């Protein structure tokens, strides 16, 4: 059947020797580039990325972490709970005693204590805090990961643009990644069962050379087919192939065993720690956005036991990540964000828990264009309301984008309709931008 389908044209006659001679140099170079992705952290390419591309690691505290047991403690009052407040490296700023490592690094970190986002259910709260606003009828907005991917990704990049980890089951449905009207190109690679992408390895029996030669043959045939034709579909088709090959080559970025044991020990043995270390590997190689879901903070009962277990892990992993980025010279290029869908009530319920609360809660940002040592917003002595410098979701996102070098007031277009990145009238907080 193959012989009969050949048209006989000289243009379509490809000998194995001629094909290899025409493509082996370019193909070998491309393959070497892709298999070397794990070395980007120390290469000239990585240095260039550092100059031109900001990246984000979002530590998503799924279920709603308590501001009172993290960044806005209220010791000695009826709503305060049993934990002390401790001084930090910023004079006059105190955080929970459950975060001693971050207390030493507060001069590198910005806290917003005045969030009032108004939505106190998991699904709508998560969608709001991943997008900065609510979807409209007939219009789905992209989440922050898709925005950063679109703005920061390079067309020639061989690494994924947008990666999310959420390997626990609680709350996963509430925080699904969504590229909205950007389309599938900027949707996340979602890892929900293990820390590495599945189904991206070469099949047994196919050598690296075989794989490369097959890819080169596909490129050559595609180029010949494209002669005299103009189609966006052709471009998308070729781009998809190249990105798949790049993702296959970037598999080692997801492998923490590639790191020295002392680095792995430094982060710790937990799943959250390993995923955070992978996130550092990914952003160092040029991935614009990585989100790590850490569940489950929804503590309607036994709030203090839950936070006594989970906050020290967050404290250790977050502090280790910040130090690691600084030691690698990435502190100005990678922003580390901690965020939930909401906070927890100051009121302590009959089950010694704290319930959903979106009226006066906290989050943090470190590096990537954010001013260290800053605290924005203040809550009343019991933590019930924002008493100064209130921040809504739109203002938070405008500030994040501006710090990253993304104009928060730009328009995208859905058809002929202009769609602003943040809602009209929203302004960033200039005082928090370095």
Label the CATH architecture.
3-Layer(aba) Sandwich
- This entry's quaternary arrangement is single chain
Q: Shape, please? A: globular
Order of helices and strands: HHHEEEHEHHEEHHHHEHEEEEEEEHEE
Kindly report the spatial arrangement of strands forming the biggest sheet.
Answer: 6-5-7-1-8-11-4-12
What proportion of the residues form beta strands (DSSP E)? 15-25%
Total domains? 1
Give the integer mean of the pLDDT values. Answer: 86
The helix content, as a percent range, equals: 25-40%
Give the C-alpha Rg.
24 Å
Q: Kindly state the number of beta strands.
A: 16
CATH fold node name: Alkaline Phosphatase, subunit A
CATH homologous superfamily, by name? Alkaline Phosphatase, subunit A
Low-confidence stretches: 1-51
Q: How large is the count of helical segments?
A: 12
Determine and state the CATH class: Alpha Beta
How many angstroms separate the termini?
66 Å
Helix-and-strand structural type: alpha/beta
> What is the makeup of the main sheet?
8 strands, mixed
